[in-house]
Amino acid sequence: MRLSLMSLRFLLIAALLPILMLVHLSGMARAQSWLEHPFDATKLSREDTATLQASLAWTGDFFGVVDGIWTDQSQQAFAKYATRTAGRETVPKFSDIKDLVMFLEDERVRNDWQLNYSPIANTSYLFPFGLIEEVKDAKEMEYLSKDKSISLIIREGKLADAQSDHDWFLGKARADTKPYQFSNDQTMISWVDLDNKMTAYIRSDLHDGLWSTMNFVTTEEGYFRVNLLAGTTVTGNASAASLIWTPGGVIDQVINGTAGAAPPTAAAAAAPRAEDQVERPGKSAVTSPTAPETIPTLPPEASHPTPPKDIPGDLVEDLPPASDAPANGILGTPAPGTATPGTATADAAPAPGGLGTPAPGLPDAPDPGTAIAAGPAELGTAPGGPAPIRAPEGQPAAPVGAPKVAAVAETPRPKVNGTLKSSGTGFYIAPTTLVTAAHVIEGCSAIGMADGSALEVLAADTTLDVAVLGGAIDTGAWLKLSALEVPKLGETVTTLGYPYSTSLDQGLTVTSGNVSALRGADGSSNRVMITAPVQPGNSGGPLLNKKGAVIGVVVSRVDDIAMLEETGTLPQNMNFAVPSGPLLTFLARERISRPQGEGIRGDLSGELPEAFAAAVVPVQCYR
Question: Considering the entire predicted model, what is its pTM?
Fold first, then answer.
């Protein structure tokens, strides 16, 4: 009898096991994010597609035109990258985008790559303005990279002059190689391996009756930078290769951790044309990029009847109103046409038509000899005629969309004369540029430093709650901000700030804690929760990891009174910061320039290095 009962139980379990496994596997499949699905380029906007192509050009996997049109050549390059980094034959997935794009993003930030439009040649291309500088006292337009790996000479003349440049380099080609050449009635391109283990890239474009020629010579160290520049060079000023991710698009979701279980909606795509695919000979790929540490899987959050309220304004030290408030027009008020405190600037806004929005008549991708007429920004294209801080050709007037760079204030510096209203914290990301929280400067007639030096608003996003200020005193110190440094769950963090700076004279304060959650109180990925104590006046201060890199901006804390009324308990150490990913996206979108170099850094596990004190300052708001 006992044997029969055991047998019956065994048979019952054996019968139910396949059903239970099927239910389990079905649940796993439903829970699996689209990030692990095979990559599908039709889900990307044209601008995101160009960013992915540029990333593959930087790793040495792609040697075609970075035009935002995904072809078999692009797919093969992505598969090559995925296979190399995985160490086995594999099909690329959406999740492979993260490390690939962040590898390029770190290079973009380090060397200030920006989309340049050359009015002389009527061409657009990405250019590393933080790396390549003009050679002083040169007889012609000559440029050299700081590491001396890339040389550039620009000439303008007749067809015979342009042809002579190409012929000269072609005559220097290494005997065992075959130079690449392309030409039509508007463009000539030569790509030549030289005897001295260097490579030459020569491009000539006809515009307004004259030929403009760029002569690049690069060592092996600069080869992939020239490949990126050459691949993004197109005729006209409507290139898709701005490296600005489409808000809410695939790259934005993958990098900033907002991807859900459902795949993104397909973006409008342009049909490829054979004449657009101008290829150049490729070299073997660089070693696979150092993969940044991944963002940990988000833990399940505790449920609340209603999300706890965070109060940004509570971290700004407010002063009581005074009856002698100054009149309008205080020195330091943003000039007409600049962003007002608390208002996002509009001239560098991303192109309309994000993920899933049909493009209002996408232009065909340009080949090297097809001009694109300037016009309103469309899906995947940069806003009308983006331009660099300075063009390689010289110092032309910057058209609309030029990068915003904080001007170094002249002596004597303007001072803010008014009544102090409130105070927060800011930190340097460049010699004269500060980042702070947007609510710190909201409602201010003027903004200044502790000594009264006036600051100007370069950009602000009240939804994200971050702002950029220019005109700060150059202290010679700025903090490291990199796409490879992101908040990690449980890691030790440090906050720097000036709480109660107008009431107390304690100077810079340092608090530490941990990253306790990778989302905000409302589930937003634009916030991380930290346990480091913060007080009124800490808003806008940096959140640093143990290496001293910025991984966030302190912006708010949970409303103690609201939580007490709702739950009957007081919250402890529930404070919030904007993580570095959304911050970098904001800086790129607003074209905020940052210098070459990593900024100050140091081990924060012990005493705070002195250099950090110079990079964090009070930000004061005046009536």
Answer: 0.49
